[in-house]
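Lecture notes, continued. The same structure-token format from the folding unit now serves as the input rather than the output. Read the line below as a description of shape only.
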């Protein structure tokens, strides 16, 4: 029996075992496949979830979810697994409807190599891939590198007494380091703050910070807005140069029924919407309204606010992030695309949401004290400083924040509660996708041996069949098609056998019902009509299909 766990992070072999167990135990709902291999040759697993008794996975509108493209963002994998668990074991009406009418594609770990490095007995904290880049040389350049010096399975912080240091102890809380002031006594003790680690080619004086040899950021390697290394750090040799990213691109484009794309990351406790590359006034107005409406639904479930990546989630308007998965999914494919930054450590500690980037740049010391008090409730989140004899720097102290289990991810005691909110939002998002349903169908005699066949189809989903206006602009979405599958002895005498019906609108996205412009009309419906000849009792079939909204069939007998 599949044993899901949501209070810790799984190594790759354990994750693989669990996914195979799920695929066997829930074979009627779940299929496991491999979409590619990582740089080090590990499979990248895709879990396809749908009620196969209600139709094939590619005949239903779909949500795509992937997780942990960044090495240390491990709670994203837990959230993806929680989604799988909710979908295969849940029996509430919402989950059962999602399984019956939708397909959910889940990649629990995009970057298995980086995650293995982060979870190793002697861990390494990489941004993303383990491939050496931009220099194809695994040897570190001179400078400082993180390392688990005492072999306790953690990379903590390291403080070194230094008269030129920028940090001093808080007068009331010696564990907390605060910024040195310009008028402070120069004779007081000060510290230099570093991660736990060692120095390559140390000259006894200077400490450079070159960064690890593995300089890739896989979430800068997607085609939309891709820029070379000099303009976008970590972008790779060319768009899609990395095997993990190529696997995602190929898998998503091979599944045209995908309507929405969600990439799970940490941290910050925000829902990021497109675009990273353009201001809002360069996006279709209807898409902005749609994203904001979905964001309100997401906020109600998760408590996470919606941020525009371009306007709200950059360090500077001149230093926007490009080459990201959500931008590619929206700008190139016209999907409803999101990045979910799981876990808001500042809200947990301070008690209210703060802008993640702005808070990191500047905040009151009172917030640091509150964070430290919060950490004391979760053993190991903050480690009291303890002496260590550094082979190069002499007497130092190790301790401080265990970033992996406090800031980058929730403490284990909070992990399941955090990811459960995200998985519930994802189920609801799946049900926002367009959905075809036959509204009415009939065959009416109009003469001797002649019938008018009429089928009315409706989009009963929330999003329009094209999903976004961007999809229409980019020409990547095909029209709704109604096809009369003529039986032997039946001839079409009026109307083409295959009719293109355009796109169908979705549900209203908000606004007052009493407003004079609130009339809905029937833009969510389309009519297909033919005149045929044949014999009484002959069965004919009409198939309605849309690449994103799914397929529907209706059978009619000539009366």
């Amino acid at each position: 029996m599949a044993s899901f766990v949501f209070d810790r992070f799984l190594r790759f072999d354990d994750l693989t075992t669990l996914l195979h167990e799920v695929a066997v135990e829930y074979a009627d709902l779940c299929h496991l496949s491999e979409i590619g291999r990582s740089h080090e040759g590990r499979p990248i697993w895709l879990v396809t979830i749908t009620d196969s008794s209600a139709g094939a996975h590619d005949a239903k509108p779909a949500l795509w979810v992937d997780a942990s493209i960044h090495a240390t963002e491990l709670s994203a994998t837990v959230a993806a697994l929680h989604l799988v668990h909710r979908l295969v074991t849940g029996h509430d009406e919402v989950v059962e409807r999602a399984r019956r009418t939708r397909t959910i594609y889940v990649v629990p770990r995009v970057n298995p190599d980086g995650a293995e490095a982060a979870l190793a007995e002697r861990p390494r904290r990489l941004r993303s891939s383990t491939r050496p880049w931009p220099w194809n040389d695994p040897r570190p350049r001179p400078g400082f590198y993180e390392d688990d010096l005492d072999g306790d399975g953690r990379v903590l912080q390291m403080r070194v007494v230094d008269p030129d240091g920028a940090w001093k102890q808080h007068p009331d809380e010696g564990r907390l380091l605060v910024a040195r002031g310009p008028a402070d006594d120069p004779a007081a003790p000060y510290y230099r703050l570093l991660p736990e680690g060692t120095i390559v080619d140390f000259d006894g004086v200077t400490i450079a910070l070159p960064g690890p040899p593995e300089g890739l950021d896989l979430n800068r390697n997607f085609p939309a807005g891709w820029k070379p290394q000099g303009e976008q750090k970590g972008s790779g040799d060319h768009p899609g140069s990395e095997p993990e990213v190529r696997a995602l691109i190929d898998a998503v484009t091979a599944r045209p029924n995908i309507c929405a794309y969600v990439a799970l990351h940490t941290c910050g406790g925000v829902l990021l919407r497109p675009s990273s590359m353009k201001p809002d006034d360069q996006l279709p107005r209807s898409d902005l309204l749609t994203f904001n409406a979905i964001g309100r639904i997401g906020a109600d479930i998760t408590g996470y606010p919606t941020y525009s990546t371009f306007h709200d989630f950059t360090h500077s308007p001149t230093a926007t992030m490009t080459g990201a998965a959500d931008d590619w999914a929206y700008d190139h494919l016209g999907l409803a695309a999101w990045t979910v930054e799981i876990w808001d450590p500042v809200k947990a500690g301070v008690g209210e949401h703060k802008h993640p980037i702005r808070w990191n740049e500047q905040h009151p010391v009172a917030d640091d004290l509150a964070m430290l008090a919060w950490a004391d409730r979760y053993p190991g989140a903050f480690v009291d400083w303890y002496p260590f004899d550094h082979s190069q720097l002499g007497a130092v102290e190790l301790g401080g924040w265990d970033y992996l289990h406090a800031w980058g991810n929730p403490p284990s005691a909070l992990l399941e509660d955090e990811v459960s909110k995200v998985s519930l939002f994802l189920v609801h998002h799946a049900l926002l996708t367009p959905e075809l349903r036959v509204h009415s169908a009939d065959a009416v005699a109009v003469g001797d041996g002649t019938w008018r066949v009429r089928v009315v189809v409706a989009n009963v989903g929330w999003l329009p069949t094209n999903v976004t206006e961007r999809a229409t602009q980019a020409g990547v979405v095909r029209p709704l098609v109604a096809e009369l599958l003529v039986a032997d002895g039946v001839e079409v005498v009026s109307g083409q056998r295959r009719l293109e019906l355009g796109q169908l609108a979705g549900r209203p996205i908000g606004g007052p019902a009493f407003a004079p412009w609130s009339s809905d009309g029937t833009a969510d419906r389309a009519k297909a009509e033919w005149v045929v000849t044949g014999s009484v009792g002959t069965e004919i079939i009409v198939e309605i299909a849309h690449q994103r909204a799914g397929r529907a069939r209706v059978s009619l007998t000539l009366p």
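Point for the exam: The mean pLDDT is 94.
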